[in-house]
């Protein structure tokens, strides 16, 4: 188990990369650190690895602090973004290398047996005599992961390991990483800025922004139950629709529509919602086309065909909105369409971006 308590990092230039971060990762879990560039996710990874020292706070492995432990003694495997393979060595030699150096080095024949065992696990045994320069990006990635696993580390750290691969290969390799770490049973921390990547392979996601954890939760909860406006906007593709509204006299007011507050579901309120100005968040799949009892009507500016779905783009007051409908709904550009919102699945945020509903 990994425990991070009050972790803070301020660099020499006074930039505060982390602001008192706390989280726990259970043994065997695959956790993604997700967020935009500069949010602090790679800083956390480097602090856990021992490549950086914290300004304050503690990092514990199984109840023991490792803050003052040298990186080589933390029993971690680290896969870098650029793979960091030795070009003059064969694949087998690269995988064996960590076992043949340092205080815990073992005999070469023993190292070879262990390396070959993990190479079979990652399906790279046929590459054993090749040099890294002759391998594809996906093959190099597998070699880097195998080399990290060969020392049987307590924790595996992956820093944006798929960013150099094309889209189809990323999909394949991320499935392999999930299978592999679960098969080995190793605690894994995976840094990415790609929400689809994080949602598809994680047991938990820690979503960060500006050095602060915005939500630490099961992947589906970041989409279905975001803590705040940042989480709602960051998670989801197409991005959530956001509209300024005013709550007054039991009604939701917008320049293009008015709806009773009674359309909201009582159990979804997070705190009281007095009259005032708010932001309404509604996912594109919850903007419904209707034939009667519409909330508003508008003309369609453009239509995108995505597999089995159409994305309808339209303007409402001064905001651009999207609706996702089935490909079977034949709606063309310029059509006048009546819409309603599925308010029971909507979100409402206050002026600080905190979720009210």
Automatic annotation (TrEMBL):
Keyword Transport carried by entry: yes
Q: Which SMART domains match?
A: AAA (SM00382)
Task: List the Pfam families.
Answer: ABC_tran (PF00005)
Give the keywords, sorted.
ATP-binding, Nucleotide-binding, Transport
The protein's matches in PANTHER family, at most eight in alphabetical order, are given as:
MALTODEXTRIN IMPORT ATP-BINDING PROTEIN MSMX, OSMOPROTECTIVE COMPOUNDS UPTAKE ATP-BINDING PROTEIN GGTA
The record's Gene Ontology cellular component field reads: ATP-binding cassette (ABC) transporter complex, substrate-binding subunit-containing
Q: Which organism is it from?
A: Candidatus Enterococcus testudinis
InterPro entries, from UniProt?
AAA+_ATPase, ABC_transporter-like_ATP-bd, ABC_transpr_MalK/UgpC-like, Mo/tungstate-bd_C_term_dom, NA-bd_OB-fold, P-loop_NTPase
Taxonomy, top ranks, is:
Bacteria, Bacillati, Bacillota, Bacilli, Lactobacillales
GO terms (molecular function) for this protein are:
ABC-type transporter activity; ATP binding; ATP hydrolysis activity
Tell me the domain of life. Bacteria
Q: What name is this protein filed under?
A: ABC transporter ATP-binding protein
Residues in a coiled coil are none
- Any idea where the ABC transporter domain is? 2-235
